[in-house]
Amino acid sequence: MRSELILSTYNNPRSLALCLESVACQRVAPGSICVADDGSGPETKAVIEAFAARHPDLTVRHLWHEDRGFEKGAILNKAIASSGADIIVFIDGDVLIHPDFVGRHLALTRPGRFATGSLIRLDAEATASVTPELVQDGTVFDRRWLSENRAIRKLSTWLKTRPFPVPVMAVLDRLSPVTRALCGANASVWRADLLKINGYDETIKYGGQDKHLGVRLNNAGVKGVHLRYSAPLVHLDHPRGYADPEKMRRHKALIRAARKSHLFWTPDGIVKGEAGADGWGGKA
Question: Quick count: other Cβ atoms within 10 Å of Cβ 281?
Answer without folding.
Answer: 16
